[in-house]
Design goal:
It is built from 7 helices and 9 strands, in the order βαβββαββαβαβααβα. It is an alpha/beta fold and 197 residues long. A 5-stranded parallel β-sheet has the order 2-7-1-8-9, with helices on both faces. Strands 4-3-6-5 form a 4-stranded mixed β-sheet. Strand 5 (82-88) and strand 6 form a beta hairpin. Bound molecules: adenosine-5'-triphosphate and ligand LQESDW3C. The ligand Nc1nc2c(ncn2[C@@H]2O[C@H](COP(=O)(O)O)[C@@H](O)[C@H]2O)c(=O)[nH]1 is lined by residues 26, 30, 49, 53, 84-86, 88, 93-95, 113-115, 117-118.
Length: 197
């Protein structure tokens, strides 16, 4: 006997990838982990932020950041073009809104690599977002990595380490914590959290 269908068609499960936010203190290894992960999985779309910071050697406009002037950043903010923005250690950084929404709409896995203040703003505006905290194996190792990178002056390193104390204390606000002992392991764990593998 043919089955008689009664009732309404069930909604398909929501399989859209969620927005993932990766935060953690400066120097913990966020960019290193993300670059490693995207080598194998370029389908993970990483938002390119706007910043008023000056480029480091090798950093390219439109690839690592959109390097903008203070006036340009003022306009991006005033025009509501940023999903979130924050001042961090003397410079401003923000996530261009339109590109993120477009990629999410297409169903692509989207990753933001942003500071704690930005993560908190995303939590407010997009409560579905998954917030991942990248923690250092120890405070001493964080200092070693930030100093060893050799990209910041001692004064800027001090400012970033001061921010790091606040950021480390905020770790319980995040959905997940990954400890960056091994770049390969963390990249794998992050991919799994993003449902990419
Ligand atoms: N697991 C690891 N073990 C040892 N060194 C690491 C590890 N991960 C990253 N590093 C090194 O630590 C330094 C800082 O890494 P990276 O620039 O990726 O940090 P970040 O969190 O993106 O910093 P920022 O927030 O300032 O941009 C780099 O020199 C990098 O090679
Ligand atoms: N709130 C935001 N923070 C951002 C964004 N892009 C990067 N960042 C964070 O800033 C610090 C410093 O970065 P650096 O490249 O100067 O070392 C770091 O924590 C980044 O994750 C952003 O769009 N919004």
């Amino acid at each position: 006997m043919a089955a008689t269908f009664r009732g309404t068609t069930p909604e398909p499960p929501d399989v859209r990838p969620r927005l993932t936010v990766l935060s953690g203190p400066s120097g913990v290894g966020k960019s290193t982990v993300v670059a490693h992960m995207r080598k194998e999985h370029p389908e993970v779309w990483l938002s390119v932020s706007a910043t008023t910071r000056k480029p480091r050697p090798g950093e390219q406009h439109g690839v690592h950041y959109f390097f903008v002037t203070d006036d340009e950043m003022d306009k991006l903010i005033a025009n509501g073009e940023l999903l979130e923005w924050a001042e961090f250690a003397g410079n401003r950084y923000g996530t261009p809104r339109a590109a993120v929404l477009e990629r999410l709409e297409k169903g692509e896995p989207v990753l933001l690599e942003i500071d704690l203040q930005g993560a908190r703003q995303v939590r407010e505006s997009m409560p579905d977002a998954r917030l991942v905290f990248l923690a250092p194996p120890s405070w001493e190792e964080l200092v070693r990595r930030l100093t060893g990178r050799g990209t910041e002056s001692p004064e800027v390193i001090e400012r970033r380490l001061a921010a790091a104390r606040t950021e480390l204390a905020a770790e319980p606000e995040f959905d997940e914590t990954l400890v960056n002992t091994s770049v390969e392991d963390v990249a794998r764990e992050l991919l799994a959290l993003m449902d990419v593998v």
